[in-house]
Amino acid sequence: GQQLNQSPQSMFIQEGEDVSMNCTSSSIFNTWLWYKQDPGEGPVLLIALYKAGELTSNGRLTAQFGITRKDSFLNISASIPSDVGIYFCAGQLGKTSYDKVIFGPGTSLSVIP
Amino acid sequence: GAGVSQSPRYKVAKRGQDVALRCDPISGHVSLFWYQQALGQGPEFLTYFQNEAQLDKSGLPSDRFFAERPEGSVSTLKIQRTQQEDSAVYLCASSLAVTEAFFGQGTRLTVV
Questions:
Q1: Which residues 7-26 of B are in CB contact (within 8 Å) with A?
Q2: Which residues, including other chains, have CB under 8 Å from residue B6's CB and lie 6 or more apart?
Q3: Which residues in chain B have Cβ-Cβ distances shorter than 8 Å to A49?
Q4: Which of A48, A103, B3, B39 is 20 to 30 Å from the Cα of B94, by its Cα?
Q5: pLDDT surpassing 70 at residue A52
Q6: What average pLDDT does the segment A74-82 reach?
Q7: Cβ distance B51 to B72 under 8 Å?
Q8: Is residue A53 exposed (0-12), middle (13-18) or buried (19+ Cβ within 10 Å)?
Q9: CA distance A110 to A78
């Protein structure tokens, strides 16, 4: 089945630094999603990407849908303590929420004040 | 309610016991999903409902897992004869037709 890999597995950064994390897939996806999960909470959608090559921003977050449709990256600029959490990339074969979401294993982000 | 509500938040079950986990989706949301999240892993798809119809149950790990949504609103995930490997957080998500899916806080199941 489809598998997603995320790198790095974890990262420790100083407050104010920029962050970059990647996601690759063995299969093509038509929708890429980035979620953040805080401890004891469910994942919250940060950015959704629907077109190969698409670059989308949401505040300090920027994500891109790779042109091969097998990868995506997420950048966070000027990190702050509340950015701490686990970031999951996820893919969907289709473009609607009817399609099941395949999650990656996550990147754990720690921000040192 | 304002968001997806799951209950209980925490459940400890003895091995072999049956458990039932409840999900109250956002009112009016047609789609409902169940995911299983093991410690340190991403959520894994279990099953999907569109209204009361269970359209995809390909992720259910065994026939001990059963989900229902009889009136197209509240859903229950039942696990029979629980095993230690069933210990995980069970997440429910709901969505309208083509919008994002919103997740609940999950139920943390510990089988001892």
A1: none
A2: B21, B22, B23, B24, B90, B91, B92, B104, B105, B106, B107
A3: none
A4: B39
A5: yes
A6: 97
A7: yes
A8: exposed
A9: 13
Residues 53-72 of A with CB under 8 A from B: none
- Select from B43, B66, B62 the least CA-distant residue to B54: B66
Instruction: Spell out the residues 6+ positions from residue A56 whose beta carbon is closer than 8 angstroms to its own.
Output: A47, A48, A49, A62, A63, A64
Is the alpha carbon torsion for B85, B34, B21, B75 positive or negative? Answer: negative
Rg (CA), chain B: 13
Q: What are phi and psi of A81, to 5 degrees?
A: -55, -35
Cis peptide before A105 (omega within 30 of 0): no
Residue A113: closest CA among A36, A11, A17, A9: A17
Residues A52 and A69: beta-carbon distance below 8 Å: yes
Check if the beta carbon of residue B19 is closer than 8 Å to that of residue B82. Answer: yes
**How many beta-carbon pairs below 8 A join chains A and B?**
58
| Cβ(A7)–Cβ(A22) below 8 Å | yes
CA of A67 vs chain B CAs: smallest distance (Å): 23
What is the nearest CA distance from B4 to chain A, expressed in angstroms? 10
Are B50 and A98 in contact (CB < 8 Å)?
Answer: yes
Residue B1 pLDDT greater than 60, yes or no: no
- Which member of B42, B56, B103 has the closest CB to residue A100? B56
Q: Please give the Cα distance from B19 to A65 (Å, whole number).
A: 40
